[in-house]
Amino acid sequence: MRFAYLLPPILLLAACGQEEEKKAGPEISINAGDEHGGVQISSSKDGGGKVKIGGDGVDIDIDVPDFVDFDVTGDFDIDGVKLYPGSQVTTVNVDANDRNGADKAVVKLGFTSPAAPAKAAEWMAGEFAKQGVKISRTGDTLAGKDKDGSDFTIKFGPDGANSKGEVLITKS
């Protein structure tokens, strides 16, 4: 099965940070596959997770405590543009598949930002301009196409004096 090569690095990630103090992290959900099977990975805010691999005679289902300890917020960017400073990613959902030669992927990230929606959207619009990435803006929603040809939308909404939002990246 094509996705079996993911198992060793995933299990290595599970061992990372075992002795460190636990931190709340984003909820993560990854679903990848093709007509022969797939891989499902999930992690809760407390770091516990599951790995499922199935297809073509393979059926693996593993509970992994302290699944991942990596910095989604710090690692995330679109063509060099990160989320507004101080933002935190709260959820990550990835759905990718390759069926009959049609390669599709959808990535959704939920986040919070320590600024009002208009201020955070304005800052990110300026950062995209610095990187030469064309975007359109409707209210507090940014939309564009990254350098790899994937469409993206970043929506900001009010959350008290701050904002919360969603990044949606689609590749088809």
Keywords:
172 residues, disordered N terminus, alpha+beta, 10 strands, 3 helices
Q: Describe it for me?
A:
The N terminus is likely disordered. The chain contains three helices and ten strands. Strands 4-3-2-1-5-6-10-9-8-7 form a ten-stranded mixed β-sheet, with helices on one face. It is of the alpha+beta class and 172 residues long. Helix content is 16%, strand content 47%.
Secondary structure elements and their pairing?
Layout: H1 7-15, E1 27-34, E2 37-43, E3 49-55, E4 58-64, H2 72-75, E5 88-99, E6 102-113, H3 117-131, E7 135-138, E8 141-145, E9 151-159, E10 162-171
Parallel strand pairs: 1-5
Antiparallel strand pairs: 1-2, 2-3, 3-4, 5-6, 6-10, 7-8, 8-9, 9-10
Q: Count of helices?
A: 3
* Helix percentage: 10-25%
Mean pLDDT: 75
Q: Which stretches are poorly predicted, pLDDT < 50 over at least 5 residues?
A: 1-22
Question: Terminal Cα separation, in Å?
Answer: 23 Å
* DSSP strand content: over 45%
- Overall number of strands: 10
Radius of gyration (Å): 18 Å
One letter per element, helices H and strands E, the order comes to: HEEEEHEEHEEEE
| Spatial ordering of strands, largest sheet | 4-3-2-1-5-6-10-9-8-7
Please give the oligomerization state of what you see. Answer: single chain
Biggest sheet record: 10 strands, mixed
